[in-house]
Amino acid sequence: MQFQFNTDANIQGDDRLAEVAETVVTSALGHLTDRLSRIEVHLADVNGAKGGADDIHCTIEARPEGMQPQTVTHSDANVDAALRGASKKIRALLDSEFGKLGRR
Fold first, then answer.
1. CA dist., res. 87 & res. 92, Å (int)
2. Which of 29, 66, 74, 100 is the S-S candidate for 86 at Cβ 3.0 to 4.6 Å?
3. How many angstroms separate the CA atoms of 83 and 60, rounded?
4. Is the model's pTM score more than 0.70?
5. Which value, to the nearest 10 degrees, does the dihedral of the CA atoms of residues 2, 74, 90, 101 take?
6. Which domains are assigned to the chain?
7. Residue 20: CB partners within 8 Å, gap ≥ 6?
8. Of 34, 37, 41, 1, which is closest to residue 17 (Cα–Cα)?
9. Do 70 and 42 contact (CB within 8 A), yes or no?
10. 48 to each of 34, 55, 72, how far by Cα in Å?
11. pLDDT one-digit tens code per residue, 7-43
């Protein structure tokens, strides 16, 4: 599985943050990572230097093998919370999609 990490100009996307993001997302997905060809994580600070509640947006796109890409977005007060929230959402979405396939 490939992992791609992107940030906007307001978030410093260094190697350490990319490593943390990969760890958070892959641990949240657990065994589902075997069924994915790629994960893309995008972090953006919508208010820039102004700050404010829920101004960090995390978008995760998962590309399951043989299926359409699945995308979720979560907004929170800081990068870690946004990553964890989006990770939980993508896990729930993929569990649902793979569950539908199993019922057919």
1. 9
2. 74
3. 9
4. yes
5. -120
6. 2-103 (3.30.160.100)
7. 80, 83
8. 41
9. no
10. 36, 8, 22
11. 999 898 899 999 999 999 999 999 899 999 999 999 9
